[in-house]
Automatic annotation (TrEMBL), chains A, B:
Name the UniProt record assigns to this protein: glycine--tRNA ligase
Reactions this protein catalyses: 2 ATP + H(+) = P(1),P(4)-bis(5'-adenosyl) tetraphosphate + diphosphate
One Pfam family cited in the UniProt record for this chain: HGTP_anticodon
UniProt GO cellular component terms: mitochondrion
Any one GO molecular function term: glycine-tRNA ligase activity
The organism's place on the tree of life at top rank: Eukaryota
CDD domains recorded: GlyRS-like_core, GlyRS_anticodon
Enzyme class: ligase
EC number: 6.1.1.14
Compartments where located: Cytoplasm
Subunit structure: Homodimer.
GO BP: mitochondrial glycyl-tRNA aminoacylation
Free-text function comment from the UniProt entry: Catalyzes the ATP-dependent ligation of glycine to the 3'-end of its cognate tRNA, via the formation of an aminoacyl-adenylate intermediate (Gly-AMP). Also produces diadenosine tetraphosphate (Ap4A), a universal pleiotropic signaling molecule needed for cell regulation pathways, by direct condensation of 2 ATPs. Thereby, may play a special role in Ap4A homeostasis.
Amino acid sequence: MSTRPTEQEFIRDEFDSVLRGRFFYAPSFDIYGGVSGLYDYGPALCSLQANVVDAWKKHFILEEDMLEVDCTALTPAEVLKTSGHVDKFSDWMCKDPQTGEIFRADHLVEEVLEARLKGDKEARGIAHLSLEEENEDKKKRKKKVKEIKAIKLEDHVVTEIEEILAKIDNYGGKELGEIIEKYQITNPATNGKLEPPCEFNLMFETQIGPSGNLKGYLRPETAQGHFLNFNKLLDCNNSRMPFASASIGKSFRNEISPRAGLLRVREFLMAEIEHYVDPDNKKHHRFDEVADVVITALPKNVQEQGSTQTQQISIGEAVKIGMIENETLGYFIGRIALFMKRIGINEKRMRFRQHMGNEMAHYASDCWDCELHTSYGWIECVGCADRSAYDLSVHSARTGEKLVVRENLETPVTVEAWEVDIDKKKFGPKFRKDAGKVTKFLESKTQCELESLSKELANGEIVATIDGAEFHIDNSLVKIAKVKRTEHIREYTPNVIEPSFGVGRCLYALLEHSFWTRPEDTGRKVLSFLPTIAPTKVLVVPLSSNSQFVPLTKSLTRQLRSAGISAKVDDSSATIGRRYARNDEMGTPFGLTIDFQTISDNTITLRDRDSTLQKRGAIPDVIQSLLAMTNGATWEEATTKLANFESQEIEQ
Amino acid sequence: MSTRPTEQEFIRDEFDSVLRGRFFYAPSFDIYGGVSGLYDYGPALCSLQANVVDAWKKHFILEEDMLEVDCTALTPAEVLKTSGHVDKFSDWMCKDPQTGEIFRADHLVEEVLEARLKGDKEARGIAHLSLEEENEDKKKRKKKVKEIKAIKLEDHVVTEIEEILAKIDNYGGKELGEIIEKYQITNPATNGKLEPPCEFNLMFETQIGPSGNLKGYLRPETAQGHFLNFNKLLDCNNSRMPFASASIGKSFRNEISPRAGLLRVREFLMAEIEHYVDPDNKKHHRFDEVADVVITALPKNVQEQGSTQTQQISIGEAVKIGMIENETLGYFIGRIALFMKRIGINEKRMRFRQHMGNEMAHYASDCWDCELHTSYGWIECVGCADRSAYDLSVHSARTGEKLVVRENLETPVTVEAWEVDIDKKKFGPKFRKDAGKVTKFLESKTQCELESLSKELANGEIVATIDGAEFHIDNSLVKIAKVKRTEHIREYTPNVIEPSFGVGRCLYALLEHSFWTRPEDTGRKVLSFLPTIAPTKVLVVPLSSNSQFVPLTKSLTRQLRSAGISAKVDDSSATIGRRYARNDEMGTPFGLTIDFQTISDNTITLRDRDSTLQKRGAIPDVIQSLLAMTNGATWEEATTKLANFESQEIEQ
């Protein structure tokens, strides 16, 4: 029973002052001036995080018997070179050579162009906020653009800019450089000209061991650890497919200039699933369970036309019409939507946005982001990517270790294929030190290439150019022929569907979605966490510091603890009303008041945070009600045995 | 009911082959050849870890309302410079200039001297193992010393070496260098002479942000994050003392040459508590609860005499006689002992060893290690240190931020103290740019120093030498006088008692302590985890792949899940006996067999892993028994309602 007003204005300063005042979080190394992009979680947010992670484990790992792994963050460079991260895991940055300041190119373009559009609206008299307010707001939000000027743009420029903003995630360094040039985007503080965008790798580098010979990085995702253990995981699953591995752990990204509070951080908790699936069969046996889940979708073709118009569509329909590529991808998108609902995310502020072509990570063949709406705009909180066979293939090729599934075929198949048969006895003496190279040349050929090589061979010899040198291979050295073979085993590299959660971002969105102000008293803030997720379930409040209440308070908290209900006591001298107000800011859903009547008849008052309604009953009955509500029952369902109780909340 | 034979020989190869075969763990980046000191946890160890961490949270955080924090691993250099880690957190290493090999000096000395003692025993005819076996063993354990030679040593040399080994943790680089010189310790593989020991800092270094201006380290402990948030934590606790913060997270140490498997790793999970206490009152209000806990203690004076003789002593007695310095330190040592028992550590293989003077970390004033015995010897698994006011003081001094407790005094006290009164109006013009320096010089003086300065001033002037320059200060510029003042508030820097758990080491010891071989069949290995801690509680085994069992299996696992009992199904075609044998290696305490009788009367067989006893009953009764046992009840207590069941376990 929530009394959250639907259209209340969200004021980030007030929100932030509750979160920091109650030590949900704080900038790390605060007394040293802090480091941007690093934050510490205090007790309440630790507990919220533990409950959300616990819900995640139940919803995903336990529900589907996923195999959990816990791999190291320290990763040797070679692994991340193979996975493509050393070369491609980077953002574009622009340096101001005058001041030495460094900007993330896409964010700067976005911010400057958005500011110009706002200035244009103001000039046309259709701005929402007054410029003064807006400029004030910019300063508080630590935006680079500190002032918006009311300058009217030409109509076609407005259209161009709107298109650029819709496609901003689709641009590489070259395009960003062109936009910066064309729209004369400069350092907003000094108007200084910027250097063209250059790539900055987002991984933290370090040295492993004392010799300085082993370069390493902190992992930017947990995924690689799963992939490298694929054979062991498959073995754990008795070689059965499909199956999934899961991991919850910290990852690290050296963001260029993080300025969005808890949303853009350099060290963060990820919860990642790698679901391994037969590339020829991406059906999912539990797809039915999510087919009717309706999501808000923003597919790529809409964005590529420069629009952000969403549509409501069921998972079943989206897969049917090909908007979502396959059942397994659809299944996980549906499961993500259900999870978000389970932890208390406002569904109206959730959408699934498909990546555009250029935007996709280097390993992905399709990707949908679960975006949650916050005061910073729409934020990617979960990525759901089809990584195809990319990772398993590249690691296998690099190490020579097969990362494949072998399936017994019920009916053996006859396969016809071109095969190379090298006469090794002659090959060595003929090519000497290059024998290996020439062998590799022949063995790495595709079927089509082998077919044409067989023709060259029939016509006399193959002339191979390898590393600039020429080699002559005739049919005394090698045979290339089409061979028929009966195969009893099918061997394939699985595809990987990856739902990847940024836990901290989900938590932040949850905090914003849960925050409101009591309309009757704007000084009173509330965080309406669901009872299943709330950091603490119950606040125990003895009416006064009277010593008669001490044993009652102890006995009550002991009973709550043994029922598994986490409780805190506030026996400070503040009024009941003030203690409850403090408690509302912590998001504790229930309050229990011990008063003089409790001493005589063992009854207590139960208070609901959102409605401030109160009911009274015997302690065991109240504990039963609490148990039901912390397991998901509503106030109405759980409190039928309790009597209504009227009392005014005294504020001071 | 365990049938673990008490004196069974532990064979590490067999143990390791079960752990790796069942993917409890694997070397990280295995298919790339691995990186020493980095390991991944597979599903079973992840689950064991989660259960142990959960037990830890209940035993410490929940039980005592500790305040949890989650701080970043990335730490700017300045913080760790202040804490002393940049200068002092290092080990001594020796390089072989010929081969480039690097050895950890203390470990090398220990290993070489231990090998010489063994060789001496063999020469005297009192060796336990034959040298061949021992040498074989060294190779397997990846020891640096590959061969032990039967060479008799002089009696006084044996005594000297025994003393050195007892005090090995007490030596610095200079002493290690002298020992290496005196006993001619060389590279065991090549006999090459080593360079003298030099210090190697154990922290991983990196750069934060794109500019390269902010050097950072990965934290070597979680503690600093707690300390920097002290004021916020105190505020969360309504300014009440004493209280504790707690944190569970990864820390990183760049070990020189880790060779002890899961025991010496470069990235590891820590669970740390920082308990803040009044330095004038280190009593603990729950000390009574642990006073009777008996521990095996090895105090520092015994070790300093070159002995490792332990004694059994109660916590109460140890504090009373001053062996343990104060109640709070004693309380936590007792709580640690109780926790170890709770998770299934063999108490006979647990001791508390006090650090010797030189061995202590730079921040500690007293420290006791909880050591667990493993096949690698006695291993430090938990440190319990009194960090005094060290950390809070140094961070406060560096940042100018007070990290103190302020207490209202019930009766105000009169304090008499020397005070400096600087005439700032004159000070500036007189000393100009050095005014700040001179002010700091005066304000940083102790009471004694102020007293003597006051005399100098009375005699004419103070002549201060600061940074090589001389400054003359007379009594027109400054007054120094003894002042009486009434104080209503007491301000103090708390002391910190820190129990710090290496979770991975506790897990490894638990694995070794739980491992045994069925005496009747040496091929059958068992991991006897307590039901409360075991990764999976129940294995469900349908008798055969008969399709009649499928719905029963599904319904049973659903019932188990809704009762909160984690279960796995093994419906492979192996015999029941073989499936149970597999299961014993996973440490699953209970098995449920579904057979044809189940179809007709809804009864199932319940099997106990350790005793292989079986009982039979109706499904709801069996689930009740399981619930009781996973909450701590014994087999005898929990299965009274079930009937005995005789069946031979068929092995093949």
